[in-house]
């Protein structure tokens, strides 16, 4: 009897453990994790490149419901969508979810980038970025950005009958980043940055298999090379500041180096500087170049939008002297142009979605999302919801006349809440200045079909070749 009782006592905790595991498993969202490491990654990537990712996700929703589990980029994942999902993603203080990206993104861009940080670290780095990227600081760079865009058009557009927009927009935005954020002017050094950078972005969204033939491997190597180049730049800028041959607001690097904590030491570690410079490079280059490309595309196929943008920009051009740079006050008058850009971001957001790491077990939609898993959210699911945006397939910039009428966390091309992208004003200034000069100096028409895919950001057919004709500058 004693032996039987002892066995019974031994089996009780095992039974309770198995029961709890079974109940926990029953509370997981429906779906399948698929094959180890690969999971559904290849299926999602194929759908993105074919511009069928929304349909791919809609099929999941029809099959499993609004919350489902899968495996993406080597990690168990829960797909969520809608306003409540966006709010969950963008308002977490780090106690439930953290902004850790996929393994491939984290290894390539660095673990101390702003998208990887939570709580006080996130706030500290964000404050450092905002010292440079806030509107009050950016005002002084409008003229320099204007000059960079004029040079780009003179070299790459004037005298041409046809141009391919996407690679030129990537070239333009990267040159602006090099000039304004890093103080790196044209030359061999900038060219080396461009070469490495293109290899880096090719593998940001990829299965993290580090073998010589993979995109991830090439991107990872390019990341290491770029980080070493940035460290050299930081050292040079630190010396220039000490010798007083550079100013604290000269560029992003000198701004970082000038921020001190209460002990008089640099607020950011060198690793944080490097990794956040990497983040700014990728975010500023990819999103802005895609926005400019797709804005030019929409102006070519929506004559009434083009006419309204042109009228607004011509009025500003008539108020300027020949060769005079645009000012902050001029940008404030470009209201319709920015609304057209916002509508472009709604219908074709450059960033399809993102990931959040689950710090502790959380409940969402009646299901358990376990600690250690990741959450996958996507922007188009609210952007194209007809309950939020009536006639979502219609391009209508006037819907942004009263943006406050939209429910919060539904228009999220730049994130939201405490996770709003600190570079939103930089992107707005860059877009408005570029569009001013392009629409007042050129007319254009498309030379390819209107299709596009994602790799991982938006890519139009053949890079969007257009036929261009010069206009008389007013």
From TrEMBL:
The superkingdom listed in its UniProt entry is: Eukaryota
| Signal peptide coordinates | 1-25
Q: Where in the cell is it found?
A: Membrane
- UniProt GO cellular component terms: membrane
* Membrane topology category: Single-pass membrane protein
- Main localization of the protein? membrane
Q: Tell me, what is one Gene Ontology molecular-function annotation carried by this entry?
A: heme binding
Q: What is this protein called?
A: Uncharacterized protein
